[in-house]
Design brief:
Shape: elongated
Number of domains: 1
Order of helices and strands: HEEEEEEEE
Strand order of the largest sheet: 1-8-7-6-5-4
Structural class: alpha+beta
Number of helices: 1
Organism: Salvia divinorum
InterPro entries: Allene_oxi_cyc_Dirigent, Dirigent
Pfam families: Dirigent (PF03018)
Largest sheet: 6 strands, antiparallel
Main location: secreted
Radius of gyration: 22 Å
Distance between the termini: 40 Å
Keywords: Apoplast, Secreted, Signal
Strand content: 35-45%
Bound molecules: 2-acetamido-2-deoxy-beta-D-glucopyranose
Helix content: 10-25%
Length: 141
């Protein structure tokens, strides 16, 4: 009787495992490079400061604004990944080459995980204009 139970449990486990595998398919790895154009302080502002007494343009040079925290969605509006998103969340020391986790995604990047590296290639403190390069290595189904 006991061995029958074990056999039944094994069959159930194998069934669930096989079913899950068939539904999700196999993990694929993808490498992407994207460039962020961050402007702040003029009519073309793309980044704003959230903490503080009022919402105002972000000044990368001023002290006190930095939470050193990255929380971003990469939204694809065209091409092969149109309608899909990649979610990036983690700590950003804001100097040198930084690494931040990729924690999820939607569309073609469902159940994504991986990491993204960031490097500031250009920075103009007067206009608060930064060009940031990011390489992402992502596993997804
Ligand atoms: C803002 O963007 C517009 C359209 O690209 C451009 O013509 C204008 O010069 C930009 N303004 C500044 C201050 O860079
Ligand atoms: C940002 O702050 C620095 C230092 O206070 C200042 O020199 C610079 O003009 C400011 N930039 C903008 C766009 O306000
Ligand atoms: C991105 O990859 C390129 C090519 O390997 C490399 O030259 C560059 O330094 C990388 N940048 C970051 C931010 O990882």
């Amino acid at each position: 009787m006991a061995s029958n139970k074990i056999t039944l449990a094994s069959i159930l486990f194998l069934t669930i495992f096989t079913y899950s595998n068939a539904k999700l398919g196999y993990l694929k790895e993808i490498e992407l490079t994207v460039y962020y154009q961050d402007y702040s302080g003029d009519q073309n502002t793309t980044v704003i400061e959230i903490p503080g007494p009022s919402i105002r343009p972000l000044n990368f040079s001023s002290s006190g604004w930095v939470l050193h925290r990255v929380m971003m969605s990469v939204v694809f509006i065209d091409g092969e990944y149109k309608g899909s998103t990649i979610e990036i969340y983690g700590n950003d020391p804001r100097s040198g080459q930084r690494e931040v986790p990729v924690v999820g995604g939607t569309g073609k990047f469902r159940l994504a995980r991986g990491y993204a590296t960031f490097e500031t290639l250009y920075f103009d403190p007067v206009r608060s204009h930064a060009i940031i390069q990011s390489n992402m290595t992502i596993l997804h189904y």
